[in-house]
Design brief:
The chain has eleven helices and 20 strands. It folds into two domains: 1-47 and 93-139 and 247-330 and 501-571, 3-Layer(bba) Sandwich (FAD/NAD(P)-binding domain), CATH 3.50.50.60; 159-238 and 334-425 and 455-491, no CATH class. By secondary structure, the protein is an alpha/beta fold. The strands form four sheets. Strands 1, 2, 3, 9, 10, 11, 12 and 20 form an eight-stranded mixed sheet that branches. The mean pLDDT is 96. A hairpin with a 5-residue loop joins β7 and β8 (218-219).
Length: 571
């Protein structure tokens, strides 16, 4: 029998970026907030001297235990889905801070085009430009309405950057200046400008200088140690929920953080949530936490799984195209790249940071004419200097044996003489790409695993071929002696690692017939449930999702405050 606890104003399921932002904003307003996190807590002390590449980058110390819970995957509905038993395509965090503790810090705004992608595409090219089985739709909010929430998040985390020539317009400058422009990045800048492109320094949540945010949280500048992705930052220079928003919530006295609390179900009756049921993963005791509002604030995939397990919202049916929960799963389209080997140039590639880079948007969104192209959207093209680490960096020219004396010789020769220019492409939704519950496989608590049905489409292959040409042109202009270009894309596979940018499944929009959420991230069917996060994206852009995830959380915090004041669906 589960023990029922005292009712609270708001309960949050997951304490990453979205949970941390909601906790901070709502507790500052005087609401009582309980945050439930199934992983352990972490502090800055846990990240001291964390430069153990084997332990954290390859043995995934900070990630979810796949023997306890994983996902299943298939390319199409005719295949049997199989569990992901080893980490490959994406990395699922498992501690307070979530994926926000082990991210790189690349902090891009989506383009105005993204928020009205269906309308703007039809206006410029006509409906026939959209493939029949592509379920493209607007977000239910314009960039102009949404911009202030980007501004809030970027000031909280202290984003470092400069002018983005073809990017989204800004009401305010970046909070801190751009990061250092290294010789490798300077080479990219020079080459891009010679090609009449518009390069700029990558927006970064790795601080370029000491910074104090509007909540009076002070953090130091980045040391360029090269241990960002898959690691916590020992300096707190890389923004994460643990060093920005969660301390603010705790300091109010209105927020209670409970760790090792695995939520297994949202409880509801008569069209409203009444609380959540969770299991203490240490003692295996069960608890019910009643609440006036439930915020589902875990990782994108887990948000959708919890809705399906709790029987909230109509599950998506790819055969009929009806239903909404699980609809419009999207990923990210990689494969377009150019790797350059330099005979007479050396770069200090072992120094770096997760978001130290240069990029351009000439081929992103609808910044270029798609009339004669067989794809929509595009990609941010970039070069990054994230810091090579000793174990997994042995780039060698094409034709080099994969082991032995020649491999060692070439690895040493090019250790600091290999640069890569890559394109991070948009992923657009298709009718047969979706999330549902696996009928066979279960987790350690006997609950069904989430199943992903997804593959790359002709849209993605055409995008990669076109963008591969652009990255190759840039690398040639940079002066590489040997170039290995990526211009083709095979079927999607869960291995190897590509990105943790899973999106969709509980999408926002302007109608309950086509979306789970309204533009306050409030469920149409359950007015006291709010679900910010990448699960709300109707498609994925040619950028990293975190800036948009953070902005959505600020929008949802505003919505929850309005709801607690007056109730009902917000408009």
């Amino acid at each position: 029998m589960a023990k029922e606890l005292k009712k609270t104003d708001v309960v949050l399921v997951g304490m990453g970026w979205t949970g941390g932002i909601l906790a901070a904003e709502l507790s500052k307003k005087g609401y009582k907030v309980v945050g439930l996190e199934r992983g352990a807590n972490r502090t800055l002390a846990d990240f001291q001297m964390m430069h153990d590449e084997l332990r954290f980058a390859h043995r995934f110390e900070m990630m979810q235990d796949l023997s306890q819970e994983t996902i299943t995957f298939r390319n199409n509905m005719k295949m049997r889905a199989l569990p992901m038993r080893q980490y490959g395509s994406f990395l699922l965090g498992n501690n307070v801070g979530g994926a926000g503790t082990h991210w790189n810090g690349q902090t891009f705004r989506f383009l105005p085009y993204d928020f009205e992608i269906y309308t703007k595409t039809v206006e410029r090219y006509g409906k026939s430009k959209i493939p029949e089985d592509m379920t493209l739709q607007d977000w239910g909010i314009t960039y102009e309405e949404f911009e202030k929430y980007y501004d809030m998040f970027e000031k909280t985390i202290g984003v470092s950057g400069d002018e983005t020539p073809l990017g989204a317009p800004r009401s305010n400058p970046f909070p801190t200046p751009p990061m250092k422009k290294t010789p490798a990045l300077e080479l990219f800048f020079e080459a891009a400008k010679k090609l009449n492109l518009h390069p700029y320094m990558m927006p970064s949540a790795n601080l370029s200088e000491n910074y104090t945010n509007p909540d009076n949280i002070s953090r130091p500048a980045c040391q360029y140690c090269g241990f960002c992705e898959r690691f916590g930052c020992e300096y707190a220079a890389k923004a994460d929920p643990l060093n920005t928003v969660i301390p603010v919530a705790l300091n109010t006295g209105n927020f209670e953080l409970r760790t090792h609390a695995n939520v297994v179900k949202i409880l509801h009756q008569d069209g409203k949530a009444v609380g959540v049921k969770y299991i203490d993963t240490i003692t295996r005791e069960e608890y019910i936490q009643p609440a006036e509002v439930v915020g589902i604030t875990s990782y994108a995939l887990n948000n959708v799984r919890l809705l399906l397990i709790s029987k909230m919202g109509k599950p998506y049916d790819p055969n009929t195209g009806t239903g909404v929960v699980g609809k419009n799963y999207c990923y990210q389209t990689f494969g377009a790249s150019a790797q350059g080997f330099f005979e007479n140039k050396q770069f200090n590639l072992y120094a770096g940071a997760g978001a130290l880079g240069a990029c351009l948007d000439d081929f992103n969104g609808d910044n270029f004419d798609h009339s004669d192209l067989n794809f929509l959207h595009g990609a941010n093209i970039s070069i990054t200097q994230t810091g090579r680490r000793p174990i997994a960096n042995n780039a060698t020219p094409p034709g080099t044996p994969s082991w032995g004396a020649e491999f060692k010789k070439q690895s040493i020769k090019y250790a600091n003489s290999v640069l890569s220019v890559g394109a991070q492409g948009a992923s657009l939704p298709y009718r047969h790409h979706y999330l549902d519950l696996d009928p066979t496989y279960k987790d350690a608590f006997g609950l069904p695993l989430l199943r992903i049905t997804f593959d790359f489409e002709e849209q993605d292959r055409q995008l990669v071929a076109y963008l591969g040409e652009q990255t190759e042109k840039i690398m040639k202009e940079m002066g590489a002696d040997i170039i290995q270009a990526g211009k083709t894309l095979g079927p999607y596979n869960i291995v190897p690692y590509q990105s943790t940018h899973n999106t969709g499944g509980a999408i926002m929009g302007s109608s309950p017939e086509t979306s789970v959420l309204n533009n306050y991230l409030q469920m149409w069917d359950f007015e006291n449930v709010f679900i910010p996060g990448a699960s709300a994206f109707p498609h994925n852009s040619g950028y990293n999702p975190t800036d948009t995830v953070g902005a959505l959380a600020y929008r949802a915090a505003e919505g929850i405050d309005l709801y607690l004041q007056k109730g009902g669906l917000l408009v």
